[in-house]
């Protein structure tokens, strides 16, 4: 990265780039100046080729004039006007004015905002969180404005807060966590120190969850992000995680150390494989899949603190039943962050069954057991990803399945053969089939259908004709 080098704006989508330059020209012609700022500048400096949104900050134009000039050509949503932000419709562009912010209450939204188009760039940038997000770029003149040395920090991979105003928004601590993980950064000591003085201040769960989601779906060094959470003391706000610190594991099987270290290594492995899978199946909604699997990897050993003990007979540390015991703390952790049904429904079963791939493989079970496992976890392919990350959270010679992962290969091949890798088995025989046979709907339907579904899981039949034959012969004889 060459300091002050021109940015290659051509990586922006053509429509987006044309609008950015056009808006900048409109502001210039009106006597102002529109500068790109924040994440788009940072990402372009890093060589990111998929920059999909741009923030523009306009200097020298009064609020009413900005709305009039911009609105004549670019309709904007009114929802952000009171905050000095104009969100352009049908384009991922936010246009804002420089502003002063005064802390008036708790949390992320406890600010009094006063737009001031006459602020200097340095004054405007002082309210931003980190130096790497406080860089400006003029898309017309192709010049930088970098009052706090963000380019140097980005080149050195340092995360540094901009000013003492950083403390006014507690969400910035979690933003720091996910930035460190995403961009492989190292926090400046003074940034850790200032974060340690900050409190969570009742931040809304959805804002907390948004930062955790970015950590898991975009982070490349997730363990480093969690190390920042621990160094700042903010891990105390997530007690299920904090309890992993110092929770011992048997050094024979876990020479990497305590459960915290193991979890960080598992998440780093998850991140490595997450990036590879995206290119192998581009049509999959990887954000949703990665979020569910990433949360399961994060939570997979939450049951260990309650179950870990030294076994005097076996003469080593054991955590018997930690998989099942992990359900309650997993739900506790998730419910403080989200009420999304799919998250609360799909993540805990991956935690409680994360040891099943090896157990079933070792037990040489048949197809019926694999079908029932699929029924519990919804998607076998998710469970395989969790188990794979768990395996790679320790040295190859210590892994439970085998260094070559035969257990996961076997499970993947079996699930593919049974066509249950990406979805749970569904009942073949339905109520309408019974009605077609002349049976009237009743409470007995459930008893019959449940019996047939159990037989289906056992492999007694695989199509409707087989289901009907089984029903006639074995259920209502």
Concise account of the structure shown:
By secondary structure, this protein is of the alpha+beta class.
Throw out a few tags for this protein:
two-stranded antiparallel sheet; alpha+beta; 7-stranded mixed β-sheet; 13 strands; about 475 residues; globular
Provide a descriptive summary of the structure in words.
With 477 residues, the chain is an alpha+beta fold. The protein contains 23 helices and 13 strands. Strands 3-4-5-2-1-8-9 form a 7-stranded mixed beta sheet. The chain has a two-stranded antiparallel ribbon with strand order 6-7. Strands 10-11 form a two-stranded parallel sheet. A hairpin with a 7-residue loop joins strand 6 (99-103) and strand 7 (111-115). Helix 6 (171-183) packs antiparallel against helix 9, helix 11 (259-280) packs antiparallel against helix 12 and helix 11 packs across helix 19. The chain is globular. The termini are far apart. 39% of the residues are buried.
